[in-house]
Specification:
binds adenosine-5'-diphosphate; 331 residues; 28% strand; eight-stranded mixed beta sheet; five-stranded mixed beta sheet; elongated; binds magnesium ion
C-alpha cells in the first residue's frame, strides 16, 4: 500500500544525498566509465545521475521500479557469501520513486534496442515511451518528498543538503579514479575527475592543487603492520600543515566501501599526535583491507559506520601505517 511504501521510503531516503548515493552505486554496478551528477537547490528540486554504463532494455526499465526487483542477487546464498555489487536490496528506485517524480531514460550498450523513457510519480508508472538517448542510463529525481510534506519539512538549507551531496559524490570519486565523475550544482561544475588518473589525480580534481600537493602516500601491507585484523592500509594523508576544522575530509574505506570507523579515525589522529591543532583534521583518503568476518557492518547501516572484532588492534595498525608515512617525510 502507498502509505507503507512512503514510510519505508523514509528509512532508505532521508535526504537528497541518499538518492544520490543509491543512483551512483547503481551506475558503478552498471560498469559506467562516466558518471555525471547534477543537482539543483541542494538536490531538493532535482537530482540527476547520468551514466554510460550497461543500460537497460524497456523490460529492464519497467522491472527496475518494481518492488523488490534486483538483477543483482540469485538467492540467499549470495547474501551469505557476501555480495560483490554495491546494491542488493532491489528497492532503491521503487522507494525513491514513491516519494518523488522519477524519470528513467536508458538504452542498452549491447544490441540495437531503442531507448526507453519511463516516468514514475508517487509510486505509479505514469508513462513508458520510446526515447532517443545515448547508451547508458539517466535517472532524474525531481521534487523529492513532494507528497510527504512532513518529511520535506525536515530538509535543511540548500547549503547543508548540498554539503551532504558533495561529500557522497566526493567519496565515490576518490574511490574510483578510473571512473570520470563530475558534480554540478545549480548549473555550476563543482568538480570533475578525468577517469584516467590515479588517486593523486582524483584528489587534485576534487580538492584542488594546495591539498593535492600536501598529500603523502601511505602503503603498508599486513606483514609491515602490528598484529590485528587489517591486511593492508593504503592511500594518501595530508601534511599536518594542510588541515581543516572538520572531520569531513577524512575519507576512509574498508574493503572499498566508504565507511567511518572510530578505530580508524582514532588511529589516524593518534599518528599525527600534537602536530595538528585541537579540533583540526587532516585530509585523508585511506583504504583498509580486512577479512569480512572481522568487520561488523550492522552498527549503523545507513550512516555507514563499522566496527571491528578487535578495534584496539585496528587503532594500533592504522596509527603505525600513517605514522611511518609521516616519518618517511620527516614528520
Ligand atoms: P538494486 O541496485 O538493489 O538492484 P535498485 O532499485 O537500485 O536495486 O535498482 C533496480 C535494478 O535496476 C538494478 O538491479 C539494475 O538491474 C537496474 N538499474 C538501476 N540503475 C541502473 C543503471 N544506472 N544502469 C543499469 N541498470 C540499472
Ligand atoms: Mg541500487
Amino acid at each position: 500500500d502507498d502509505t507503507v511504501a512512503r514510510i519505508a521510503a523514509g528509512e532508505v531516503v532521508e535526504r537528497p544525498a541518499s538518492a544520490v548515493k543509491e543512483l551512483v552505486e547503481n551506475s558503478l554496478d552498471a560498469d559506467a566509465s562516466t558518471i555525471d551528477v547534477t543537482v539543483d537547490a541542494g538536490g531538493t528540486e532535482l537530482v540527476r545521475v547520468a551514466d554510460d554504463g550497461r543500460g537497460m532494455s524497456e523490460a529492464d526499465v519497467r522491472a527496475a521500479v518494481r518492488e523488490h526487483t534486483t538483477s543483482k542477487i540469485d538467492g540467499l546464498d549470495d547474501i551469505e557469501s557476501g555480495v560483490t555489487t554495491l546494491g542488493f536490496r532491489g528497492e532503491a528506485l521503487h522507494t525513491i520513486g514513491s516519494v518523488s517524480r522519477l524519470t528513467i531514460r536508458s538504452r542498452p550498450q549491447d544490441g540495437d534496442d531503442a531507448g526507453t523513457e519511463l516516468v514514475y510519480e508517487g509510486g505509479e508508472v505514469e508513462s513508458v515511451e520510446p526515447a532517443g538517448c545515448p547508451a547508458g542510463t539517466t535517472v532524474e529525481v525531481a521534487d523529492l518528498f513532494y507528497n510527504t510534506p512532513a518529511r520535506r519539512k525536515f530538509l535543511k538549507t540548500t547549503a547543508t543538503e548540498f554539503a551532504h551531496v558533495n561529500r557522497i559524490v566526493t567519496r565515490y570519486a576518490l574511490a574510483n579514479p578510473d571512473v570520470a565523475v563530475s558534480l554540478t550544482h545549480d548549473g555550476r561544475e563543482v568538480f570533475s575527475t578525468t577517469g584516467q588518473g590515479d588517486l593523486q589525480a582524483a584528489v587534485l580534481a576534487v580538492y584542488g592543487r594546495e591539498v593535492a600537493a600536501a598529500m603523502i602516500p601511505v602503503e603498508a601491507d599486513g606483514d609491515e603492520l602490528p598484529p590485528g585484523p587489517l591486511e593492508g592500509v593504503s592511500g594518501l594523508v595530508s601534511h599536518p600543515e594542510t588541515n581543516r576544522a572538520s572531520r569531513e575530509y577524512l575519507a576512509t574505506y574498508v574493503n572499498d566501501r566508504a565507511v567511518t570507523a572510530d578505530a580508524v579515525r582514532e588511529g589516524i589522529m593518534g599518528a599525527y599526535g600534537t602536530q595538528l591543532g585541537s579540533d583540526r583534521y587532516p585530509f585523508v583518503v585511506l583504504f583498509h583491507d580486512a577479512p569480512g568476518e572481522a568487520v561488523d557492518v550492522n552498527v549503523h547501516p545507513r550512516k555507514r559506520e563499522v566496527r571491528f572484532d578487535d578495534d584496539d588492534a585496528v587503532r594500533r595498525q592504522v596509527d603505525a601505517a600513517v605514522e611511518s608515512a609521516l616519518l618517511d617525510h620527516g614528520l
